[in-house]
């Protein structure tokens, strides 16, 4: 038997992912770009509809209020996405609603002074104004950490070994939004999951006019087919005698969005009235802003690889966090009912389509702004059953998690030190938030339950986030455990050049500001 050569066993590390026909600064033809942008818009609807669907009824809002919050969230998502792609990190990322803000928002909803308001609509307005005030105040944290470059300085403690678990947990940590939701309506969710995998992977080489149409547009095709199939089941009376929970998750006519939506409605700042401010509520919201910062940092690292770009330098990362802080400020001014973070599912779609173009994301932002103003048309697409989105999440979240694990190629995984850090940080990153989740479901409150409400929000929010727990554990261990002579094992020789803007010649190509603005804001 011939001797096996070392290069035949392993693959050399690659700084940029290969196989992308269009990377961050290259653009598909306009026709393709518009359809790809519409796919990203459709995918962003899942979170934009689900968060208001959970929170608005608890605030006392009607179906009409819920529709207006969905429209506002989509409108601000479009604005924030444009700002981030033009002046922030310039990565192809969608800046959408964040589940990290749910814990402090729930604390505001349950505030005794607000819960005691007898009129539902008045309670909704007062609660929304309190949420707005907390978002406006807490947004200053990201603005300060970003534009002061403090977050960029802190990022110097990151390494490929430390970031691999954090980015991986960005995907793995969202497993509750995957198959557990698919299982609520398996006759719709499972066909969607199977069809999406078949079209995007097994039939990805099917081409029409030299375009791999099934790989690039599989999301749009699958959602159209399965949505029509769900509509047939609904119209045929398949759920007429089913339990209420099944009908909510399976039927296409239970959202009440289309009937409640106005034909034209343009969201505007302070549309719910003047925000109200409370020190305790604002302190509690800061915890969600910190979690959003960590999750977005991990998302930017993943998006850079899936856009076939180099890792964003510290200055660019800080610039993006600063603009994200402005995004949360806009959330507070417009009244979206939640804060912002990078949409993980849209990052995963970059890899599924193998199109990492910045222009595609900017086009999707245009769709968000346009359809948020045309209420009826936007509500039509927003009425897609969430089970369909959950089936897609099973693929896209897994893809983002795998991107995180790919950072390990730059490290020495024959080192027990590295194996310990990766294993413990991933395990605790999953186990600790699961404990907080199960405790909250059983006790109807988080494990932290002191008289200081803001402290409870801090603990319950931060330790309910898998990437945040992973970052705390991984970065601490990586910078304190046998650090001497471990730089090569940690992957630092590859990582260090990307810390500064001028450390790699490609940074200017990927991350320079448009309109020659680098003359006025030179990166460090």
Question: How does this structure look, described?
Answer:
By secondary structure, the protein is an all-alpha fold. It has one domain (30-405). The chain has 26 helices and two strands. The protein is globular. The termini are far apart.
Parts with pLDDT < 50 across at least 5 consecutive residues = none
| Helix content, binned percent | 55-70%
The number of domains: 1
Question: How do the SSEs run, as a string of H and E?
Answer: HHHEHHHHHHHHHHHHHEHHHHHHHHHH
Order of strands across the biggest sheet? 1-2
Strand content: under 5%
Provide a count of the helices. 26
Structural class: mainly alpha
Number of strands: 2
Subcellular location: Membrane
Protein name: Nucleobase-ascorbate transporter 2
Family: Belongs to the nucleobase:cation symporter-2 (NCS2) (TC 2.A.40) family.
Main location: membrane
Write the layout of secondary structure elements.
Layout: H1 6-9, H2 30-59, H3 63-87, E1 95-97, H4 102-109, H5 112-115, H6 120-147, H7 150-154, H8 160-172, H9 179-182, H10 186-202, H11 213-216, H12 218-235, H13 244-250, H14 257-260, H15 279-306, H16 314-334, E2 340-342, H17 344-353, H18 358-373, H19 375-382, H20 386-406, H21 416-443, H22 453-462, H23 466-480, H24 487-490, H25 492-495, H26 506-511
Helix pairs in contact: 2-3, 2-4, 2-18, 3-16, 3-18, 4-15, 4-22, 6-15, 6-16, 8-15, 8-20, 8-21, 8-23, 10-12, 10-20, 15-16, 15-17, 15-22, 17-20, 21-23
């Amino acid at each position: 038997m011939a001797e096996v050569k070392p290069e035949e066993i392993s693959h050399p590390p690659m700084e940029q992912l290969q196989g992308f026909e269009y990377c961050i600064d290259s653009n598909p033809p306009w026709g393709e770009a518009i359809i790809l942008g519409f796919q990203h818009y459709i995918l962003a609807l899942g979170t934009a509809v689900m968060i208001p669907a959970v929170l608005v009824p608890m605030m006392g809002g009607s179906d009409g209020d819920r529709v207006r919050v969905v429209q506002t969230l989509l409108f601000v998502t479009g604005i924030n996405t444009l700002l981030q792609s033009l002046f922030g990190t310039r990565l192809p990322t969608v800046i959408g609603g964040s589940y990290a803000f749910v814990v402090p928002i729930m604390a505001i909803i349950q505030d005794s002074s607000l819960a005691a308001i007898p009129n539902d609509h008045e309670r909704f307005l007062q609660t929304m104004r309190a949420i707005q005030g907390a978002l406006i105040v807490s947004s200053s944290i990201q603005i300060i950490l970003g534009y002061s470059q403090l977050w960029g300085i802190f990022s110097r403690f990151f390494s490929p070994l430390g970031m691999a678990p954090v980015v991986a947990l960005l995907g793995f940590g969202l497993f509750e939004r995957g198959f557990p939701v698919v299982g609520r309506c398996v006759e719709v969710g499972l066909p969607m999951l199977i069809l999406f995998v078949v079209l995007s992977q097994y039939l990805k080489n099917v081409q029409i006019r030299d375009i791999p149409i099934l790989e690039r547009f599989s999301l749009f095709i699958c959602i159209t087919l399965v949505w029509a199939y769900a509509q047939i089941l609904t119209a045929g009376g398949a759920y007429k005698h089913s339990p209420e929970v099944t009908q909510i998750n399976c039927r296409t006519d239970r959202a009440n969005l289309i009937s409640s939506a106005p034909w034209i409605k343009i969201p505007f700042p302070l549309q719910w009235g003047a925000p109200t401010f409370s020190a305790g509520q604002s302190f509690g919201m800061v915890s969600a802003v910190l979690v959003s910062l960590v999750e977005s940092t991990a998302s930017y690292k993943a998006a850079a690889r899936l856009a076939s770009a180099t890792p964003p330098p510290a200055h660019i990362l800080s610039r993006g966090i600063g603009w994200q802080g402005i995004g949360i400020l806009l959330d507070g001014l417009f009244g979206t009912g939640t804060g912002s973070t990078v949409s993980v599912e849209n990052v995963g779609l970059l890899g599924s389509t193998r199109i990492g173009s910045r222009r595609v994301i900017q086009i999707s932002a245009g769709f968000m702004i346009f359809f948020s103003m045309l209420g009826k048309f936007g509500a039509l697409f927003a009425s897609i059953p969430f089970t369909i989105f959950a089936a897609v999440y099973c693929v896209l979240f897994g893809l983002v998690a795998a991107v995180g694990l790919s950072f390990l190629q730059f490290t020495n995984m024959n080192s027990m030190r590295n194996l310990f850090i990766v294993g413990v940080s991933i395990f605790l990153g999953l186990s600790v938030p699961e404990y907080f989740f199960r405790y909250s479901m059983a006790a109807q409150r988080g494990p932290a339950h002191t008289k200081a409400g803001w402290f409870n929000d801090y603990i319950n929010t931060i330790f309910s986030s898998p990437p945040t727990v992973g970052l705390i554990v991984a970065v601490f261990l990586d910078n304190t455990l046998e650090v001497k002579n471990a730089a090569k094992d940690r992957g630092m020789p590859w990582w260090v050049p990307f810390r500064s803007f001028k450390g790699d010649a490609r940074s200017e190509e990927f991350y320079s500001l448009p309109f020659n603005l680098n003359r006025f804001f030179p990166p460090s």
